Amino acid sequence: MAQASLICLLLSFSIIMLSNAADISIDCGSSSSHIDADNRTWVGDTDFVTTGLTSKFVPFSKFPAELTTLRYFPTGETNCYTNIPVDKGGKVLVRTRFLYGDYDDESTAPKFDVVYDGKHRDSVVTTTYETATQSEAIFIPENGNISVCFYRTLSSETPFVSTIEVRMLDDSMYTDLGPKEGFILQQRTAYGAQELVRFPYDPYDRIWMPASVFASHLTSSATSIDTTGADNRPPEIILRTSWSQKGMAFYDIKLPFSGMTFYIVIYFSEPLSLGSDQKRSFNVYYEDKQVGSDLIVPPFGAVTQASLRDVVKTELAYLTFEATPDSTLDPLINALELYVISNSGGSGNGTNSTSTSGGGSPSPGGGSGSPPSTGGGSGSPPSTGGGGGSPSKGGGGGKSGGSNNGDGGTNKASEDEKSADSSGKSGEEKSSSNLALPLGISLPTLLSLGAGGWGVWKYFIKPRRHPESELPLKQNISLQVNMGNATVVNAGQ
Questions:
Q1: Is the terminal CB of the chain with fewer CB neighbours within 10 Å at N or C?
Q2: CA quadruple 295, 297, 298, 302: dihedral, nearest 10
Q3: Which of 171, 243, 246, 210 is nearest to 390 (CA)?
Q4: ∠270-137-235 over CA atoms, to 5°?
């Protein structure tokens, strides 16, 4: 009997190991392996790449070891990592991270493109010392291995990469993804969280960035939250906080430039055990298109998701949360994912190119990938109450060792997150107004709206540093908002 139990235990363990066999973390520029604080094994990159040079630098602040090494590509138009093992036909998440750290003493962070499996292209815009940037794609590989290629878009720029992470997803997740498509991440946000959330709290190692604004932060009173009601399986911890506010419009959700086709999915979980005289029900619209097919009634102790795809961003892009007439409570949001849809348009075919000429085609995914974590360990569970806050300063820097010169990067992500206090509310106020989220603007500005007519407000948006990756906004943007007794609160630069 004991022997049979042991066999069953070993069989179960082997099945678990097999299900995660395709997960791999590559420490680019390193020839050795190590295990990080979250028990992830990082392997060196020499089995996957034959071109480029390596460098290592000593950062000014605490970065995980895998971000202190990099591989850069001073020659060739396209340089590729190949033969990265995956499960053929399954859904895969591939994340690339870039920490420049001034490894070449040039103080100039480069721009370039990354192409996943020869099909799905994203533009990479790196920063200088203290922040890492990230790109991420979800797609269905046609073979049992994939490539990740770095494409020089200007002859003066030198692509580089710090890490490549591959995570297999369940087939039941992201069912809106077509077999030839890719989802290029723009934003993955947990509203009300104080710290970023990733593995082990998300078993698929997605990185959820915190967000905070002067809105009501609600914390769930449910003893547990069943996540199986959402196909994409958001982690329970991000469903324990939400934003809810009466008569509020805030600017946080961002999209790349007009004309891009995107996919958006939003998650909802009721934080309160409602009485018989309480009801929370609402619809969500992107402009005049409904997000999801049904009225949203967030379940207590469970989760529901609503999604919309094949929508082209216009200059003025709004998400509006409209409470139903019989709703006694305001709309809420727990978390959101935002992707540009790639239709197999990337020109990197998984082979190295010796051409040194610059110039590349634009990314079908548009702007920079999403905000990431540059940090490693989770340690204690991330706090889920309160706000997100601004990133801490102090990052990479002085170079040590390495060979020759190069550059590198992609979307920004702060290594450390400072939390901003924000008081919670019971959420029991009566709702008669809508929660509106204008798309395409990453800005800590809150409009507390009173009654009044519609108006157009034009202003110049100043670039600011944010824990999430973003491109500076340099153009005048016209926003249509309810201007009755509107007050503007700037949460800081």
A1: N
A2: -100
A3: 210
A4: 25
Which residues contact residue 114 at a Cβ distance below 8 angstroms, ignoring those fewer than 6 apart?
Answer: 96, 121, 122, 124, 135, 148, 149, 150, 151, 161, 410
Fill in the amino acid letter for 83. N
Q: In angstroms, what CA-CA distances link 163 with 44, 176, 215, 401, 420? A: 10, 28, 36, 18, 30
**The tokens of 85 are what?**
């093992």
Q: Which two tokens stand for residue 272?
A: 């309160």
**Residue carrying the six token digits 């509020």:** 248
Q: Which residues pair with 332 in a beta bridge?
A: 244
Please state, in angstroms and rounded to a whole number, the distance separating the CA atoms of residues 437 and 317.
Answer: 9
The token duo for 176 is: 């809106």
Which one-letter DSSP state was computed for residue 244?
Answer: E
Cβ atoms of residues 49 and 82 within 8 Å: yes
Contact call for residues 196 and 384 (beta carbons, < 8 A): no
Rounded distance, CA 244 to CA 400, Å? 48
Q: Which two tokens stand for residue 493?
A: 């630069």
CA-based torsion, 63, 197, 86, 306: positive or negative:
negative
Q: What is the pLDDT of residues 223-240, one digit of tens each?
A: 999 999 999 999 999 999
What's the CA gap between 101 and 68, in Å, rounded?
8
Where is pLDDT greater, at 10 or 188?
188
Query: Where residue 431 falls among pLDDT bands split at 50, 70, 90?
Result: very low
Are residues 338 and 105 in contact, defined by beta-carbon separation less than 8 angstroms?
no
Alpha-carbon distance of 135 to 245, in angstroms, equals 32
Q: Quote the tokens at residue 171.
A: 């087939």
Alpha-carbon gap, residue 229 to 62, rounded angstroms: 38
Which two three-digit tokens encode residue 82?
């190949």
CB 177 within 8 A of CB 183: yes
The span from the CA of 95 to the CA of 81, in Å, is: 13
Whether the model clears a pTM of 0.85, i.e. scores above it, the answer is no
Tens-digit pLDDT profile for residues 162-204: 999 999 999 999 999 999 999 999 999 998 888 999 999 999 9
Q: How far apart are CA 70 and CA 82, in angstroms?
A: 17
Confidence of residue 214 (pLDDT cuts 50, 70, 90): low
Q: What is the sign of the dihedral through the CA atoms of 114, 120, 123 and 127?
A: negative
CA 191 to chain CA mean position, Å? 13
Q: Which of 337, 38, 341 is nearest to 182 (CA)?
A: 341
φ, ψ for residue 109, nearest 5 deg: -80, 130
Verify cis geometry, omega within 30 degrees of 0, for the bond prior to 64.
Answer: no
Q: First-to-last CA distance in the chain?
A: 66
Q: How far is CA 92 from the centre of its chain?
A: 15
